[in-house]
Amino acid sequence: MAVEDKVKELFKDVLDIQPDEIKPDEKLDESLGIDSTEMVEITVAIKKAFNLEIENKYLNKGQTFNEMVAAIKQKGGE
């Protein structure tokens, strides 16, 4: 499964956000209304799913979905 698809599944499972709601180039907080608590939940899920040690600054609600995926790939997520 591609990183993008896996992250979309996590958004669905953790935050009940459907994949078609995710706009790849819009900021997560603006396009999906993600707040700080939800961002912590999705960050923890991403770290577990990809078995990553990634600093929270690379996963934040002010970035886009594509930026998040790029950070995961850069840190070795597959």
User: How would a textbook summarize the main sheet?
Assistant: none
Low-confidence stretches: none
**Secondary-structure element order, as H and E?**
HHHH
Helical segment count: 4
Q: CATH class, please?
A: Mainly Alpha
- Stated plainly, the CATH topology is called Non-ribosomal Peptide Synthetase Peptidyl Carrier Protein, Chain A
By CATH, the architecture is named Orthogonal Bundle
Radius of gyration: 11 Å
Q: What global shape is seen?
A: globular
Supply the CATH superfamily name: ACP-like
Amount of helix:
55-70%
What this model shows, in words?
The protein has 78 residues and is an all-alpha fold. The protein has a single domain (3-74), classed as Non-ribosomal Peptide Synthetase Peptidyl Carrier Protein, Chain A. The protein is built from four helices and no strands. The model has no long low-confidence stretch (mean pLDDT 92).
Brief write-up:
This protein has 78 residues and is mainly α. It has four helices and no strands. Helix 1 crosses helix 3.
Task: Chart the SSEs and their pairings.
Blueprint: H1 3-15, H2 28-32, H3 36-50, H4 65-74
